[in-house]
Design goal:
- The relative contact order is 0.13.
- With about 550 residues, this protein is an alpha/beta fold.
- It has 22 helices and 13 strands.
- The chain has three domains: about 10-75 and about 305-435 and about 465-500, Rossmann fold (3-Layer(aba) Sandwich), CATH 3.40.50; about 100-290, 3-Layer(aba) Sandwich (Rossmann fold), CATH 3.40.50; about 510-545.
- Strand 3 (about 110) and strand 4 form a beta hairpin.
- The longest helix is centred in the C-terminal third of the chain and has 22 residues, at about 480-500.
- A six-stranded mixed sheet has the order 1-2-13-12-10-11, with helices on both faces. Strands 6-5-7-8-9 form a five-stranded parallel sheet, sandwiched between helices. Strands 3-4 form a two-stranded antiparallel ribbon.
């Protein structure tokens, strides 16, 4: 087998972790800090401009020791070597998994089928730079001689979520171009985007590996029709570019071959923002900032590939997710960035994590009898505090949280940033310590409440605490630090998949509904409705009535 093929539940570490959980499940994190003067330092990793503090977790040294033993027993280092080495670890699709090669150093060598793919990647980077520089500078113009003012990215899934998330995250660094994203096949979506655009000054980038994706092609053809209301067929070559491999379909659409950027089958869609799929990022913030994003990701790649497991950020964070998912029974984890710039980050992670590790069959083809694939969700703080923090603080579910914050704001508004970060630090402390009945009693008595009223209100104001958090504190939100942060979570996904003994990089679950939609579309547009279950038939009849 290309990858280690080990049932994690049969390892010695797993058995010991189960025993260890039973012995420690009632342990309070507060007491762990009381007993360990150096706990914060012992359970932290400092790397580049990142401080990763995982001390506010329901763990002790024994927990970490057993989790690291689990990583060794499933041969995580061997798997990492094959991941970076270009082996076909996406075995059900017969592909390598090499989004890391997209941000490799120009001098690196990554062999696939006897060829160093880094050479081809560098050629495409040069093509991206030349194209985006000419659009940003105004050298490349629309068919009436006007410079471009707007760019519309037409894609879905990884061809939309990644570029949209990064473009929003790096808005501070944007130039004069306005970037728009059309993804949903909902016609209202595309019409809303087109409503305020000028066809003379808008550039369209169609992102579809096969150039056959229904949602993307429907939107592209609608936009093409709108464009041709004020332009000619030959003008399509000036205003449209494509990231695809289907040369015939691209030519048929009218796109010039000089405006076509390649994709590779060893890059999964949800990890493709680093490729020419990220051309909208380069148009929004300039190629130099796009390249800095790649360099930041590469630095995290090198850390992940070379660092020992106990100081390896993606490995440690993945092991903690395993601890909560498989031993504490936590089904979700929340990611809370304390910056509005990362408002799309959780949505991006949803695809990366749940499309990758939402699997119920192991690498032997057998159904697993343990939990895989955590559900991830979140929103930026402090908005999140006024939304779902009530559930985390006083609800019945265990929800491990990852807080992401920055030491310095980008605009330098110290007053606002201090208030933001005061909440950031306070919430992790509050989630850990909670508020005891004794503390609540004292607080209420100080308000001169009667003994009877104190007893009535007291249980509603108690916070049990002991809610686990990881804290990632970064100096500043830059293209490089964002690249490192995204790369960190990509590798965390990989480690979890290796431990769960599943294939993280296929996505067969996406296909079934898409295929069925083809038949239901015929039912909607045709005179007759084909055979369905009673519910689906009723819904189709109601829709057509």
């Amino acid at each position: 087998m290309l990858l280690p093929n080990i049932d994690p539940t049969k390892t010695e570490a797993w058995k010991q972790l189960a025993e260890h959980y039973n012995l420690t499940k009632e342990t309070q994190m507060g007491s762990l800090f009381s007993d360990g003067a150096t706990r914060a330092v012992d359970f932290s990793i400092v790397w580049n401009d990142f401080l990763v503090d995982y001390s506010k977790n329901r763990i002790d040294q024994k927990t970490i020791q057993l989790l690291l033993q689990l990583a060794e027993e499933v041969n995580i280092k061997d798997a990492i070597g094959k991941y970076f080495g270009g082996h076909e670890i996406n075995q059900t699709e017969g592909r390598a998994v090499l989004h890391t090669a997209l941000r490799a150093k120009a001098s690196d060598t990554v062999m696939v089928d006897g060829e160093n793919v880094v050479l081809e990647v560098n050629k495409v980077k040069e093509q991206i730079k030349a194209f985006t520089d000419s659009v940003i500078s105004g050298e490349r113009k629309g068919h009436t001689g006007k410079p471009f003012t707007d760019v519309v990215n037409i894609g879905i899934g990884g061809s939309d979520l990644g570029p949209a998330m990064v473009t929003e995250a790096l808005k501070f660094y944007k130039n004069h171009l306005n970037i728009h994203f059309v993804s949903n096949v909902d016609g209202d979506h595309v019409q809303e985007v087109l409503r305020d655009l000028d066809p003379e000054t808008t550039l369209f980038v169609i992102v579809s590996k096969t150039f056959t994706t229904q949602e993307t092609l429907s939107n592209a053809n609608t936009i093409k029709k709108w464009f041709l209301e004020s332009a000619s067929e030959k003008d399509i070559a000036t205003h449209f570019a494509a990231v695809s491999t289907n040369a015939d379909k691209i030519s048929e659409f009218g796109i010039s071959a000089t405006n076509v950027f390649p994709m590779w089958d060893w890059v999964g869609g949800r990890f493709s923002l680093w490729s020419a799929v990220g051309i909208s990022i380069a148009l929004a913030v300039g190629f130099e900032n796009f390249n800095a994003l790649l360099k930041g990701a590469n630095e995290m790649d090198e850390h992940f590939k070379n660092e020992d497991n106990d100081k390896n950020i993606p490995v440690v964070l993945a092991l903690l997710s395993i601890w909560y998912n498989n031993f504490h029974g936590a089904e979700t984890e929340v990611v809370i960035p304390y910056t509005q710039y990362l408002s799309r980050f959780s949505a991006y992670l949803q695809q990366g994590i749940m499309e990758s590790n939402g699997k119920s069959v192991d690498r032997n083809g057998n159904r697993v009898d343990y939990q895989t694939g955590s559900i991830v969700w979140g929103e930026p703080g402090t908005n999140a505090q006024h939304a779902f923090f009530q559930l985390i603080h006083q609800g019945t579910k265990l929800i491990p949280a990852t807080f992401i914050g920055f030491k310095r704001s980008l605009y330098g508004n110290t007053d606002h940033h201090n208030k933001l970060m005061a909440n950031f630090f306070a919430q992790t402390e509050a989630l850990m310590n909670g508020k005891s009945a004794e503390e609540v009693k004292t607080e209420l008595e100080e308000k001169n409440m009667s003994k009877e009223d104190v007893q009535k209100l007291l249980p509603f104001k108690v916070f049990e605490g002991n809610n686990p958090t990881n804290t990632i504190l970064i100096d500043r939100l830059t293209p490089a630090s964002l690249g490192s942060l995204i790369s960190l979570f990509e590798h965390k996904i990989f480690v979890e998949g290796i431990i769960w003994n599943i294939f993280s990089y296929d996505q067969w679950g996406v296909e079934l509904g898409k295929k069925l939609a083809g038949q239901t579309l015929k039912d909607i547009e045709g005179a007759e409705i084909s055979q369905h279950d009673g519910s689906t038939t009723q819904l189709l009849e109601s829709f057509k009535s």
